[in-house]
Amino acid sequence: MLTYDQNKDAVAAISLLQKSGTEKSLIFAVNYLLEHYQEAAEAKSVEDAILDYREEKEREVDRGILSSRQFGSIFDELATFKIVFEGQIIREIQPEELKEYLEGKQKGTRRAHSLKTWNNRRGYLSTFFKFCLSRKYVAEDPVISVPKFKIKNRRGTAETFSAKQTQKLMHWLETYRGKQNKGGSWWAEPGSLVPYFALTFSLLHRPFHTKTARSSFLPTWLYWASHACVAKAVLPGYTGIIKLCLSIPPKPPLPHGPSRQMLPGGCPSCMR
After folding, report:
1. Which of 53, 100, 232, 239 is the most buried (most CB within 10 A)?
2. Is the pLDDT of residue 263 over 50?
3. pLDDT the model gives residue 232
4. Residue 74 has pLDDT above 80, yes or no
């Protein structure tokens, strides 16, 4: 037999289930509670929980699981968290308090100005509270109820050269000699910068296939200077590739291409 107070609680529980719109019974709700809910093992303060978490993460750093930079980012955030929630019991912190924390509404905290910053800081709190949950310092993870925002990556925003702009630049470089020195000589020979820009365009638009290279706006000499030499060079970085191309003896000019002096360096093996 139920006591008067127990009967009163049962009626109130059924009323709550009906208001929620669910068709589940009171027995189902009680069984669910018993299977999923657990009391926190002890009343752990925020300071003590962070201290235990720090020891755990220090071991991960020693084992190489966590980098020193990641360790610093995590505990920079938790240093602020400790100031804001100083003296509180970790299990008593509610999701709404964490939202206000990230929004900068609580004294001592700062506002997450961007969605990415919000997500990053939320992530630090999430790993901390998951640790607390594993140690039974909390009965449930309050960060689950804190929103995580979906961020769309912006693509295609960088400005690029068109085919006509590329053609115009390369033709201009064929006659460019740089600045004139006081003695009347010029800084460089006409076309001396052509290989460098040809290689740059090639490297920044990889993969650089033969069919793509032999399009209407890439003359044959540009195909030779950029594609062939890059394909033959197996060196890391731009400097190695440029040095390799400049170290190869000059090849007589291709049909309709620049003169031998205008294209220092070549790739004779590519022309076989």
Report:
1. 53
2. no
3. 36
4. yes
The reply to whether 99 falls in a domain is yes
Total domain count, the chain? 2
What does the pLDDT look like over 131-150, one tens digit per residue? 999 999 998 999 999 999 98
As a whole number of angstroms, the distance between CA 170 and CA 234 comes to: 25
Parent domain of 122: 46-145
Identity of residue 101? Y
Measured CA to CA, the distance from residue 29 to residue 17 in angstroms comes to: 9
Residue whose tokens read 């009965």:
139
Higher pLDDT, 240 or 8: 8
For residue 186, which phi and psi values (nearest 5 degrees)? -100, 160
Domain shared by 50 and 135, yes or no: yes
Of 41, 80, 73, the closest CA to residue 57 belongs to 73
User: Is the preceding omega at residue 207 within 30 degrees of 0, hence cis?
Assistant: yes
CA distance 265 to 195: 8
Q: How confident is the model at residue 260 (pLDDT cuts 50, 70, 90)?
A: very low
Inside any domain, residue 127: yes
> 192 and 139, same structural domain?
no
Are residues 168 and 252 part of one domain?
A: yes
Q: Which residues pair with 180 in a beta bridge?
A: 186
